[in-house]
Amino acid sequence: MNVLPCPVFLFSMDSDQFWAAPTTTGGLKAYYQTYGKRQSQHQLELVHFRDSEAVNAWQQQWQETVLPRMQAALSQGLRPVVGFSMYTWNAAEFLSLIHQIKIACPEVLCIAGGPHVQQAEDYLYDDPIDLIILGEGETTFQEILDAPASADWANISGLAYLRDDELHKTAERQRRTYLDDLPSALDVIDLVDAQGNCLYDSISYETSRGCPFKCAFCEWGTGAIGTKMYQFSMDRVRSDWRRIVDAGIKDIWLADSNFGALKEDLEKAQLICELKAETGLPNSFATSWSKKHSPRVQDIVLLLHRNGLLPHYQLALQTLTPLALELSNRKNMGANKYEPIAKQMASEGVPIAAELIWGLPGDNLPEFERNLDQLLRTFPNLNIFAYTLLPGTEFYERRDEYKIETIPVAGYGKAKGEYVVACHTFDRDQGIEGYFLITAHILFAHGHLLPLSIRYLALQDNITTAPLLRNLLRAVCAAYQSEFKDIDLNDRMVVYENRARLYTVILQDPERLYALLREHIFAYLETDNCPQHIPAIRNIIDLDQALSPRTGGPSQTDYHFNFDALSSKSALDCLNLPAPEDFLPQAQHFTVKSPGGVGTILKDPDGGGWLRGEIVTPTVELQTVRIMHPNVKPQFSEEVSLQT
């Protein structure tokens, strides 16, 4: 009787709105096909899901297609294998799938790896996982497949498993220092179909491994990846990137932890610009940037920006609160250093942003609000995240010491992490109010509903934006509660978790939305003894409304203003207040081109800045436009008309 190879299924799933080639599981397959000792006895298959809906569809049919193959292997004395690459965004779906597979086929060997399961005891006791890979997985996975019996597991480094209900962890797997020994995942992944059409929009690619920092909220430098940074050779990177662009993949997203920290990173940036010039691809090149803004980092950022490859450049400040920085094992550059960097890059049109986290131990809401105002005055964009407690991090280990209280994310608990809502430096009400505040920022600033208005007010010496942002969100929740009969918008955490849905609903009728926002902004300024700002902010809100994301398809709309909207916008884009003369009565009109897409392409506020309206301005002599601010020069295209 012919013995068929034992099936080995490797599962991966993309995060939301990121359809990329399965490089993680592809790397495991490529490694085994290169170094495995029993290759003829195993048939490795990649099962890559685009999203949770694809997982659900697979669950509906796998017992008809996959289960018979597993049972056939068992009948031949072989043990089929399922392996899961687990991250925060797919853990809930994969744990559900693991339970389903093990119920139908208890004998299957279930292996899990990835950052989310490095706290192995949290999963082995509760979920039907047989083995968890700790640390780098390629060699460990190969040795598991080559081990003839479970008795050999004790001799394989980097494993965790239960035996007689007792947790066993084998010797630590030493990290690989020469990465070129790892075969390319591209050797085993089809990037195009039979007709030559590209199969994926994007690809996640690592040119280096490791992170030199040990941030207490992050698993990157303290867990599976480690602190020492190693990198692939330029020959390897050059070969892979050529294959990627030749396949037609539009976006390359690096999985590096600190791009720009290594001297070779400038050469990598030069390479990607050369490929762009030669082939037109990629469209964008994104990464996690070095935590230190060095001259090399600045050179890389400007190079990518000039070549149209830079979707964003983020300074990962995370917090400005001294105690939170100390407990997080971080030290940011001083404000006197990052403020001129931010202003210079903003004036050059570089999409620079700062990252801020709410909920870190050591922080509190009043200090967070001060930090928010400071960064709103300094950066054209802020990305604010709620702190999610993740397994394998220092804060996770010290949760009792810091009196950390959490709420399960979307009801999933450990599968998707835990929202931190209280700790030893802020109570639960303050913690949840912080979630409400960052929801307001995500909608009104990040979602591009009121970005210029919020910046204008933040630049004033006598205004604090946080109470205003919360007031606006409470007004929106009260006014739109009737459209959300299934959820209670008085529950602040419900609002946070349903922010994407709220965003798309309120944008269905812009006139209604902006009438509400105007009413409450004016009332706030009156109450806060700042009525002198109302005439100017009335104009800025009009400009925000003209540029906000739209429903429907692409459109062009003419707008008429009674102030110098172009000069005002140019100033605010460069983090300066408009001049008083900008608000003197004067007729100005221009066309705004909008890509549309709210509710179809744009389903959450994270994309608001990408699908905002753009001003179509005329060709005019530069001297006809009043330039009130040094280094602020409006850029003009060749359409429509302007009256000043």
TrEMBL record:
Domain B12-binding: 81-155
SMART domains in the record: Elp3 (SM00729)
Cofactor(s) in the UniProt record: [4Fe-4S] cluster
Ranges where the Radical SAM core domain occurs: 197-429
Transport listed as a keyword: no
Stored InterPro entries: BchE-like, Cobalamin-bd, Elp3/MiaA/NifB-like_rSAM, Methyltransferase_Class_B, rSAM, rSAM_horseshoe, rSAM_sf
UniProt keyword annotations, A-Z: Iron, Iron-sulfur, Metal-binding, S-adenosyl-L-methionine
Protein name listed in UniProt: Radical SAM protein
Annotated source species: Zhongshania borealis
